Amino acid sequence: MIDKETLENASLLFKALSDSTRLTIVYQLSLSEMNVNTIARTLHMEQSTVSHQLKILKSARLVKSRREGKTRIYSISDEHVQELISQVTSHVQEKRD
Fold this sequence. Notes:
Elements: H1 4-17, H2 20-31, E1 34-35, H3 36-43, H4 47-59, E2 63-68, E3 71-76, H5 79-93
Antiparallel strand pairs: 1-3, 2-3
Helix pairs in contact: 2-4, 3-4
């Protein structure tokens, strides 16, 4: 049996991914590490909007960052996030009978 705290944390993770912008950011980061400017350019969004979404994703432990000089480079947190994104996209792309 899964404890209540684990289920609540899982719910928070799904809430973080329930926004299409955040899901798109996680998907892009599953393909390649990027800085905020690159993500903003790729998604045709403002840097401030992307930064806000990254803060939410980081608090949900879906993404992490590292510093390279003055730049922060973002990536997905671990292979579990990669697998989660892969499973979700595979599921929605399945043909329905």
